[in-house]
Amino acid sequence: MPHLTRMTPRILASASLLATLLAAAPLAAQAPAAAAPTFDPAADRAAALAVVKRLFDAMRAGDSATVRAVFHPQALLSSALVGRDGTPQVRVDSLASFVRAVGTPHAEVWDERISGEIVQVDGPMATVWTRYAFYAGTKFSHCGVDAFTLARTGTEWRILALTDTRQRTGCPEQAAGAAR
């Protein structure tokens, strides 16, 4: 092997390092992957619904910190409404203004009572669809449907989007005096 005698120590070290890296590459490819999160549909349905209920508990308490905590920082809030003239409308609200409104002192407790919850989960995503009746203190204000989209980040569920409908008349909760 006369050609090896002409190689400088630097070239030999580089060649040795390259050979070591090439030999180790298949081992790195076989390294075990990080543990995938586990999903338990029943537990995840309960956890997603608990986040929604926590939101309404925080609204009743005027607790803006908890309201902020249940939402993803980039959450979308919107309402699908029918205007006074009968035309469908969409109103978009910012998370910051909603949090501020909840935390601003008001004379009456904001009591959003939900019923008929339907919760669906697919891995790290959940939806909660529920009827609601909103009361300012003990006075009925309006009713409708809340549609939540939630996502699991790590071990925690957070609200990504909330869209609601609103009506002041024809509410089953109004006639029945919806219970908490």
Automatic annotation (TrEMBL):
<keyword id="KW-0732">Signal</keyword>
<dbReference type="InterPro" id="IPR032710">
    <property type="entry name" value="NTF2-like_dom_sf"/>
</dbReference>
<dbReference type="InterPro" id="IPR039437">
    <property type="entry name" value="FrzH/put_lumazine-bd"/>
</dbReference>
<feature type="signal peptide">
    <location>
        <begin position="1"/>
        <end position="35"/>
    </location>
</feature>
<dbReference type="Pfam" id="PF12893">
    <property type="entry name" value="Lumazine_bd_2"/>
</dbReference>
<protein>
    <recommendedName>
        <fullName>Nuclear transport factor 2 family protein</fullName>
    </recommendedName>
</protein>
